[in-house]
Amino acid sequence: MTANVVPALEVRNITKQFPGVLANDQISFTLLPGEIHAFLGENGAGKSTLMNILYGLYDPDQGEILINGELAKIKNPADAIRLGLGMVHQEYALVDTLTVTENIILGTELRNGPILNAKEASQRVRELSEQYGLAVPPDAIVGDLPVGVQQRVEILKALYRNVNMLILDEPTAVLTPQEADDLFRVMRELADQGKALIFITHKLREVREVADRITVLRRGKVVGGADPKTASEGQLAALMVGRDVVLKVDKTAANPGDAVLKVRNLKLRDDRGLTVLDDVSLDVHAGEVLGIAGVQGNGQTELVEAITGLQHLPTGSIELLGKDITNRPPRSITEQGVAYIPEDRKGTGLVLGYSIRDNLVLSTYYKAPFTKGLTFNDAAIDENAKELIETFDVRTPSATTTAGSLSGGNQQKIIVAREFTRENRLLIASQPTRGIDVGSIEFIHNQIIKQRDAGLAVLLVSAELDEILSLADRVAVMYHGKIVGILPIAEATRERVGLLMAGIQEQPNGK
Amino acid sequence: MANEQQAPAETKKPAEAKPTKRSLPWLSEAIVPLLAILTAVLIGAVIVFISIPSNKLPAFDLSLYGSRSDWFFSTLPERLRVTLSAFTGLFSGAFGDWSKPSTIPGAISNTLVESTPYILAGLAVAVTFKAGLFNVGAEGQLLMGALGSVAVAAFMPQWFGVASIPAIIHLPAALLAGVLAGAMWGIIPGYLRAKTGAHEVITTIMLNYIALQIMDYLINGVMKDKSATLQRTPFIHENAALPRIISKATDPSLTGGQAYPRLFTTTSSTWDLRIHMGIIIAFVMVGFIWWLMNRTPKGFEIKTVGENPEAARYAGMNITGTVVGAMGISGALAGLAGTSQVVGLEYNLKAVFSSGLGFDSLAIALLAKSNPIAIVPAALFWGALRTGAGAMQINTGISINLINIIQALVIMFIAADQIVRWIYRIKQAEGGKITFNRSWGK
């Protein structure tokens, strides 16, 4: 980089202390106009804290922020936007019932006296969208648009406010590979026109694809920078976690046995009468991982909930080891040997206000040895907690710490510990590693493969294609409630699966 | 970039978990309620200070005082005296005038008697708060309990055509009838909630009215004591009464010929106390509910359904059964509160029976943060205020409404605990949010 360019943003020695955690420790970096600067780090590395400081949501304890070479005080998001800094959060702040234009101009309406100047606003939106190649239908209702387009609306919202710096916080989490590629194209276009972009992610492949410069954070510190053209994914991952991680899961070829789970002709409509499951049939065999790929919201959740008894099914049948379990109560299905890692860790898998100890017996509390006579057997529950915390490497000060105060990775380990230690025949893992650190991902992946090798049938649902491709032995793709294809792992290339995920079928496929 | 080789020892440390420091957990839990009470009492004092009845003060006279404000300031000592007397009056009403020791047992007994139904009904509401339900129906459940118990206690011998039934059968039967009637009045809204989603706040409010009308109908109809001028049932049979602990023998001319039991009979007026075995039952129930909620799988299910119904369903818990069960237990406890009033204290059922006990119990459960043990001090506080209020009004002329104001302020400060935290600069404990209101407005 040339030295005489004034950085759009310069951060010097930002430090932020939370009770018990040094979230940001002397962080310094620069952001130049026209560059895409990626911040890579595990969950809890301090990325979000840093961005929230930049966006005026937190006050740093120390350090200074310079914008275009001048010292800036950012007390709230309004300050940030006035200084030219915009942010697209993971959760979009859009009003579903308003149009694209209305969403974009919300809060900065152009007016003729008290009357909204809708025509001019709509015109400006169109201009912006053409200038940056951000195709959006200005008059469509936002709630009707796909997620990828909604994200463009968010970006336009920032651009409409004349920002020249844009923070994108995990922007690809909910996108299909194709949508993600579109986003990268837009990001490049923005950078080429002089905007400075901060791209937050923990996906190594994307960083190398789109970033000009990489800064890696670990435990609140900048641990290094890297050039995306030369750094390998393995090197980046090592920087992130501080040790070499095996991204490819070590596993031998599957040795499938008999079908453990037989799902036949599941059909389901939601409350509005829209089809959610469209004649879904599949088998999962002992000793294999069947991965279900697909963008979220294409029926995976309902499929899994139907199998686990949480979703009532009007038609179709589900057999476990030759026994019909359709519409059986969840506990009866669990007791027949089904382990289940739910997709919503905090909302479903755990009671956040409970201790780790109690969460570890959430599904077995009523049985011996945890219950003796009418009351709990504390000794057995404590022993169970001690053992599982040790075996599953849950990092916690004590077993009585509440689950809610742990990091995502450790929370997920509690669920895995609880589910994997029952007598199981089928394992259902839904988004098992979403939003957790690389160390925990590796641990959980290895545990899943271990279960497979022990002869369990594994049904893995994930929106992360990389996860599916590295764990599964067969890949089924869901689109609009239908299984649009089942491929053996050898044939499941990123491109083929990606096209299926987008609903593009190469040839008619029966299953 | 590869210059960062990490020491493996570092990865073993707990990364993000916050250290949990808990020296006196109950104190940190209790601090906000205690400060809420303190603040409410102080505000109550200011209100008395400003609004002292004019007959307690020298009248305003323009020739004596230059202006209204001069008058106000010259009456400051008098105002202070009256304000203090209000609170000493309140205290001696609740705990006795300690310069006259003979008043102490009676006052404390009255406070305990007043607190007994508060403990039971407060527990009832606390159980539903734990389950994420908001049972506004304690009042109706209490009335149904009273009705059920008085029916058995007053009329059971008639049904079997005998003069009396041995106490060992009659008293338990009366208690059981009250408990079951209350439980039924809890199970109905519980079932409606679990099966149809009808919100328990709405259904319990409606069931309160239904219970009130049923009671009105019965005590003006088949259950009316024809010989009495008041609208009330006949006196219950002496074998169905809970014994008083220590008291003079009953005067049969005042109790329809019944001689009600006492554990100890006295002739001393000092020890002629109203306290009855209901308080013992209440304490036993506190222990039982604590045990149920903290030591048993059923209690674990109730708490889990309250904390996170999604997780409860996922963990295979029976949500319908748990909701219905929690409402049933709650109704049973509220029914027991009504029962103990009938068979322990009143010995009959009058039209003006409850006077809002069931609604005060909501406040008590809030004040105790739904902790079964903390229900006891909360109910005693409420009972002491109610008992002391009468004495205060008689002795100092301060309106009994002062107590209503203090009670309302306590609830306001508990519900909006941020106000108290702000006044006293108390930091929010980690994860210390009250979760009783999960179901509000759903």
From TrEMBL, chain A:
Residues 9-244, 261-505 form the ABC transporter domain. The keyword Cell inner membrane does not apply. One of its GO terms (molecular function) is ATP binding. Keywords: ATP-binding, Cell membrane, Membrane, Nucleotide-binding, Repeat, Translocase, Transport. It is found in: Cell membrane. InterPro entries: AAA+_ATPase, ABC_carbohydrate_import_ATPase, ABC_transporter-like_ATP-bd, ABC_transporter-like_CS, P-loop_NTPase. CDD domains: ABC_Carb_Monos_I, ABC_Carb_Monos_II. It holds the Pfam family ABC_tran. One of its GO terms (cellular component) is plasma membrane. It is a peripheral membrane protein. Its main location: membrane. The keyword DNA damage does not apply. SUPFAM superfamilies: P-loop containing nucleoside triphosphate hydrolases (SSF52540). PANTHER family: CARBOHYDRATE TRANSPORT ATP-BINDING PROTEIN MG119-RELATED (PTHR43790), GUANOSINE IMPORT ATP-BINDING PROTEIN NUPO (PTHR43790:SF4). This is ABC transporter related.
UniProtKB/TrEMBL annotation, chain B:
It is a multi-pass membrane protein. GO terms for molecular function: transmembrane transporter activity. This is Inner-membrane translocator. Residues 10-19 have a biased composition (Basic and acidic residues). Residues 1-20 are annotated as: Disordered. Keywords: Cell membrane, Membrane, Transmembrane, Transmembrane helix. InterPro entries: ABC_transp_permease. GO terms for cellular component: plasma membrane. The chain crosses the membrane at residues 30-52, 118-136, 143-161, 167-188, 200-219, 273-293, 314-337, 400-424. It is found in: Cell membrane.
